[in-house]
Amino acid sequence: MSKRGNGEGSIYQRQKDGRWVGAVTLANGKRKAVYGATYQQAKTKLREAQRDQEHGLDLSQKPQTVARFLADWLESTAKPTLRPKTHHSYAQMVRLHIVPAIGNVQLAKLTPQQVQRMMRDMSAKGLSPRTVQYTRSILRRALGYALKWSLVTRNVATLVDPPRSVRKPVQPLTGDQALAFLAYVKQHDDRLLPFFATAVLTGLRQAELLGLRWADVDLTAETLRVTHTLQRVDRRWQFVEPKTRRSARTFSLPAPVVAAIRAQKDRQAFERKLAGELWQEWELVFTTPKGTPLEPSNLNGRLHKLLDGAGLPRQGMHGLRHCFASLLLALGVAPRVVMELLGHAQISQTMDTYSHVMPAMLRDTADALGAAFAVAE
Q: Cβ(142)–Cβ(102) under 8 Å?
């Protein structure tokens, strides 16, 4: 016979094992039981279940761990909406950092303290603030869906503070240094001169340069279209849509880039003939001597060697993009135009990244105003 607690009609003790049982009625009319070794334990669990239900938690769902939820979310929700390389990055962060720290925790029971502890331990291991921030943002995005689906009552990742990240000032090549770099590459007849010249004078992202096809270039009209990128994901090359709507853009090419791409077309025709049956046709503008895509690691290695030879400071491919943007701003090109050429989604992204150029622009503006209104002195 079951024994009920005084005044608690929804809590009773089972005669067969002495455990106390509480039951809460679900939206579908069914009842969900909670158990405790004592009456007080069952009462506490029942109150927690009732509170969770009041906050919108779907108690009819089977409990799942953070690891199980993230695995399902990555495959069924994130994968169809993310670029392949981004999805791969998300999965890597989940596997390396989130699952080892909190993967075994029940999703509905995850606390802000557990997330904060995960981030603290990541920092203690020497991981950069940027990596910790990125990992938190992935978890926050995933838990946003869990909240929407009534699997949790709050998004605990929004309740913790990520480590402060100090952005290193951008120090790209100056105009004279960029000119010296291209002159050095030309002097040594490097086959990548057209690639580096296009990078410096268009500011294209590395993946945009790698994926540039001949169909995207009109040498007669002297224009270039960015229609996709080429990325290596899980050791396989994939053509991917541009990062944002603004990333798909058309350039009017300066004369040196037109000349460089014409030279690349002639060189590629020669290399195709030389390679014979070994040639692989990808219809790309910039390729290896056998027609295959250029490897990013080889590009950066070659760039470092050329910069060292020219006596210039080392930087990666993204540094050439910074060089292009800084040169335009220093020349007085409107930030909105620079934003469009770079394919940034927002003007704030352009201004925040290249704020180091602003003091000189402000000084030039002040001098121009002073000259224009000198008569008022």
A: no
- pTM of this structure: 0.71
Residues 186 and 335 occupy one common structural domain: yes
Give the per-residue pLDDT at 3: 46
Q: How confident is the model at residue 4 (pLDDT cuts 50, 70, 90)?
A: very low
Residue 369 lies in a domain: no
Q: Which residues contact 99 (CB under 8 A, 6 or more apart)?
A: 66, 67, 70
Residue 314 and residue 225 in one domain: yes
Task: Residue 30: give the domain boundaries.
Answer: 3-54
pLDDT per residue as tens digits for the range 203-233:
999 999 999 999 999 999 999 999 999 998 8
Check whether residue 274 and residue 129 sit in a common domain: no
Report helix, strand or coil for 328.
Answer: helix
- 160 neighbors 101 (Cβ within 8 angstroms): no
User: b/e per residue, 16-44, with b = 16+ CB within 10 A?
Assistant: eeeebbbbbeeeeeeeeebebeebeebbe
185, 171 contact by CB (below 8 A): no
Rg (CA), the chain: 30
Q: Which residue, 148, 143, 146, is CA-closest to 158?
A: 143
Q: Which two tokens stand for residue 229?
A: 């990128």
238 with 330, same domain?
Answer: yes
Q: DSSP state, 98?
A: I
pLDDT at 353 over 90: no
Sheet architecture: strand order including 250-252: 217-218, 223-225, 250-252
